[in-house]
């Protein structure tokens, strides 16, 4: 099973885990988060992040999801990457996390691909037409 670590600003990671737990019916195993605040020194957080990656890696690898490319969480993650063993994706959203959790028994490369497609495909311009198709609601 692929381990998943969310490295994000503040409580975003825990909030995403809480929401994913709601969607999936229970808190998924082998899923952790590391919240980064403005007061945190990235060099000081790096050992904690490394320890979380080691805890999450059961031999199949770890996917690290971060919030904003170029920000501190992604910069920390860049120092943890090991192609084929520890992969990273920036721009985490709930559809991405749920997709990664759904496919985490597949190889790491597949989980990365599915998470990317889930994140991308989960972004939809919610127009009246889209809402009508999705819900059948037409009271406008």
From TrEMBL:
GO terms for molecular function: kinase activity. The keyword Cytoplasm applies. Keywords: Cytoplasm, Kinase, Phosphotransferase system, Sugar transport, Transferase, Transport. It is found in: Cytoplasm. InterPro entries: Bacterial_PTS_sugar_comp, PTS_EIIA_man-typ, PTS_EIIA_man-typ_sf, PTS_IIA_man. GO terms for cellular component: cytoplasm; membrane. GO terms for biological process: phosphoenolpyruvate-dependent sugar phosphotransferase system. Residues 1-123 form the PTS EIIA type-4 domain. Its main location: cytoplasm. Coiled coil: none annotated. The keyword Transport applies. This is PTS fructose transporter subunit IIA. It comes from Sulfurimicrobium lacus. The lineage of its organism: Bacteria, Pseudomonadati, Pseudomonadota, Betaproteobacteria, Nitrosomonadales.
């Amino acid at each position: 099973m692929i381990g998943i670590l969310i490295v994000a600003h503040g409580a975003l990671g825990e909030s995403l885990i809480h929401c994913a737990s709601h969607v999936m019916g229970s808190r998924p195993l082998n899923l952790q988060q590391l919240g980064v605040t403005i007061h945190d020194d990235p060099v000081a957080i790096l050992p904690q992040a490394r320890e979380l990656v080691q805890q999450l890696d059961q031999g199949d690898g770890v996917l690290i999801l971060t919030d904003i490319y170029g920000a501190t969480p992604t910069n920390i993650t860049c120092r943890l990457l090991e192609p084929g063993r520890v992969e990273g994706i920036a721009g985490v959203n709930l559809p991405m996390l749920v997709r990664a959790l759904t496919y985490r028994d597949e190889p790491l490369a597949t989980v990365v691909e599915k998470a990317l497609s889930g994140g991308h495909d989960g972004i939809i311009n919610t127009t009246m037409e889209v809402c009508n198709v999705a819900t059948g609601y037409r009271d406008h």
